[in-house]
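We read letters as residues; the integers encode the fold. Take this protein.
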Amino acid sequence: MKERLDQIKAEAIRQIEASDALEKLNEIRVNYLGKKGELTAVLKSMKDVAPEDRPKVGQFVNETREEIEKVLEECRVKMERALRESKMKAEVIDVTLPAGKNTMGHRHPNTIALEEVERIFVGMGYEVVEGPEIEKDYYNFEALNIPEGHPAKDEQDTFYITGDILLRSQTSPTQVHEMEKGHLPIRMLAPGRVFRSDEVDATHSPSFHQIEGLVIDKNITFADLKGTLAVFAKELFGESTEVKFRPHHFQFTEPSAEMDVSCYKCGGRGCRFCKGSGWIEILGCGMVHPHVLQMSGIDPEKYTGFAFGIGLERIALLKYEIDDMRLLYENDIRFLKQF
């Protein structure tokens, strides 16, 4: 039995000393000292040993185990030390090299423009309100005085999910939700993403952003609308900016208008930027239609209001002199790093 134990010990030590990886040491430990290892097999054969010899054989087994474990531990420590030294040499830091620079992100041009618009209107007492991008047909059209079968619904090129559910084509439904709450007066700004079935080109996208404003109170007139938007234009484009209102038609406002601002590049004299006209169209606006007020539970005899809608991308394109809307969505780092 002792000869067998000596053979097991000698073979184990030979394998340990020939090992070149920690994984192999673990395999040797399992093969010789594990539950199904060589020494465990010897212990299981103790039943064949004479009773008077069992204590001596048990002592031999324990001594063999201790010697194998000792050699294993010495070899493990030696390997780990060598690995650590090798790693330290490979990962040495040259303090004379230039420090690495972290690339920091920053706000998108759309975000910069939106924050500027929000700052202006919040400064005038407006509240920023957000609404769902998936809307009911009623809130996107009917509550805005666009009934079933009206041609304006076809002009919107809307993405319908079901017959009654759609991706909103404007942020006006957010205004309707606020009016239905009945908390008057209202001074709100509704920014958000909208969706229309447009072909992608330099000035169109199936997904873009709108900023719509709404004021409802007693004795609100078109003069309030003009004064508010004139202040907004001066804050956004400069103190010398002038505004011009042209009659237009929107189904949910009456009277309606489109607002132009004097070209801030040439001061209204005419240039390539304003196509020689001296003016740049910027938004649509008007007095809230009495029927829209009625449908939202507001008495048009007591309350009036005005609304306006601005394309966020249009603001960004004008303010930063970008000539192609697609640049805002292509995520070209060379373009975005300019802002």
